[in-house]
Amino acid sequence: EAQVTQNPRYLITVTGKKLTVTCSQNMNHEYMSWYRQDPGLGLRQIYYSMNVEVTDKGDVPEGYKVSRKEKRNFPLILESPSPNQTSLYFCASSSTGATNEKLFFGSGTQLSVL
Amino acid sequence: EDQVTQSPEALRLQEGESSSLNCSYTVSGLRGLFWYRQDPGKGPEFLFTLYSAGEEKEKERLKATLTKKESFLHITAPKPEDSATYLCAVQPSGGFKTIFGAGTRLFVKA
Fold first, then answer.
1. Does A51 have pLDDT greater than 80?
2. Distance from C-alpha of A52 to C-alpha of B40, rounded to nearest angstrom
3. Which of residues 42-71 of A touch B (CB under 8 A)?
4. Which of helix, strand or coil describes residue A3?
C-alpha cells in the first residue's frame, strides 16, 4: 500500500531534550516536506526537499533541522525543543513537487514540549 | 506576501442543505490551487487541483471552481459523512512552497 509513515504518533518531551520524528514514504517520491498545524493558523511549511541531499527552508524553519540522505526518508530533528514547538506535525510527499502533483500526507505526530 | 484565507471558519448544515466554502488568495503568480479534506486525527487527503480561472472540477457531491482571486468548494446535498475540515492551498509560481489556509470545519447533521 502506498503510504507516508510517521513515527511516533504521539510524543511528550521536556524542554531542551533532542528528539527526532521519522518520516518514510514507499512511493519513490522525489519531493518531501514537513508541516506543523496549529489551531487557527493552518498548515505551515517547515522544510522541504526536492531530492536527496537537496533541502530548503519553508516559512517556519527556526528551531528545526532536516536531512535527506536517502530518497525514502526525511527525518525532522528538534535539537533543543521549546514549548512553542508543541504542535501537530505532518510529513508529506509528492512525485516531483511540480504544479500538478498532489501531496500525500502521513497520519501526523502530536508533539507536546513541557 | 502570499496569503490564503478561508471562510467561514466553521459551517453547520442539515443533511441535504447545499452550501459553498470560500478560499481567497493573494499570490504573485499562481501555479496551482489545491483542495484537501482532513478528518479528525488524520492527515489531509487530496481532492482537487485547479490551474486557471474558469476551471471547474467535480467529485461526487463536491465541485471546485476558480477565479483570479478566489476558489469555491460547492457541496450539493451534503451527507453526514461529508463532515470534515476542508483545506485550501496554493502553490505560487517561481517556487515549490505550498501555502495552506486555516481550513473550514464542516458539520453535517442528519
1. yes
2. 32
3. 42-45, 48, 50, 56, 58-59
4. coil
**Rg of the Cα atoms in chain A:** 13
Contact B44 A31 (CB under 8 A): no
Smallest Cβ distance to A99: which of B31, B43, B103?
B31
Chain B within 8 Å of A41 (Cβ-Cβ)? yes
pLDDT of residue B93: 84
Q: What are the chain B neighbours of A56 within 8 Å (beta carbons)?
A: 96
Over residues B60-78, mean pLDDT: 96
A1 touches chain B (CB under 8 A): no
B52 φ/ψ angles, rounded to the nearest 5 degrees: -145, 155
C-alpha cell at B66: 476558480
Task: Specify the DSSP element, H or E, that contains A91.
Answer: strand A87-94
Among all chains, which residue has been given the C-alpha cell 482537487?
A: B48
**Band (A113; pLDDT cuts 50, 70, 90):** very high
Q: What backbone phi and psi angles, to 5 degrees, belong to A79?
A: -75, -35
CB pair distance less than 8 Å for A58 and B97: yes
- Per-residue pLDDT tens digits for A60-107: 999 999 999 999 999 999 999 999 999 999 999 998 766 557 899 999
Tell me, what's the pLDDT at B75? 97
Distances (CA, A) of B88 to A12, A69, B49, B102: 30, 31, 10, 8
